Amino acid sequence: KMAKSTEVKIAVFGRAGVGKSALVVRFLTKRFIWEYDPTLESTYRHQTTMEDEIVTMELLDTAGQEDPLLREGHIRWGDGFVIVYDITDRGSFEDVMYFKNLLDDVKKPKNVTFILVGNKADLTHSRQVSTEEGERLAADLSCAFYECSACTGEGNITEAFYELCREIRRRKMVQ
Ligand code: GDP
Ligand code: MG
């Protein structure tokens, strides 16, 4: 019999320079790229199997400088979101609420599925946001939290994307 298949659309948001592109490429290739055109917006497809179902993930790596209308389109398009900040940049952590509010403005707040990722965990010497602060914010927003490094691969980036995928599937099933 044919396996069931689903498509899951994921958009990655966060202040410029937090490592969105590096994270997406790390997830897809298990490698780190040092420089990635910050103005480039890219989409990728990644296929996996979850509980006998073929899941095709479509990943949108947003570029950040886009206009509000384009961004609204990205939010409408997405089934789920990754909001990324950089643990060495407090401003990027403060931007998390800005992105969360954007999602709520476009989707119904109760339907917004997202995870919070604190990237650049390898840069411990210049850390500005503690792990506890990340955990607390995620608890407040009722979302999963991962601290990781696209550079070293620490923090289970694969699991973060898969967990978001599972969460999206759970929500789709109850609808
Ligand atoms: P984006 O603008 O959010 O897509 O960020 P990029 O993926 O282009 O990354 C911005 C800069 O941060 C680049 O110079 C990357 O090499 C660097 N970077 C990204 N992730 C990490 C990380 O986990 N650790 C370190 N040390 N640098 C990172
Ligand atoms: Mg980028």
TrEMBL record:
Keywords: Cytoplasm, GTP-binding, Hydrolase, Nucleotide-binding. GO terms for cellular component: cytoplasm. The keyword Metal-binding does not apply. GO terms for molecular function: G protein activity; GTP binding. It is an enzyme of class 3 (hydrolase). It catalyses: GTP + H2O = GDP + phosphate + H(+). It is found in: Cytoplasm. The keyword Membrane does not apply. Its main location: cytoplasm. It comes from the Eukaryota. Its EC number is 3.6.5.2. Belongs to the small GTPase superfamily. Ras family. This is Ras-related and estrogen-regulated growth inhibitor.
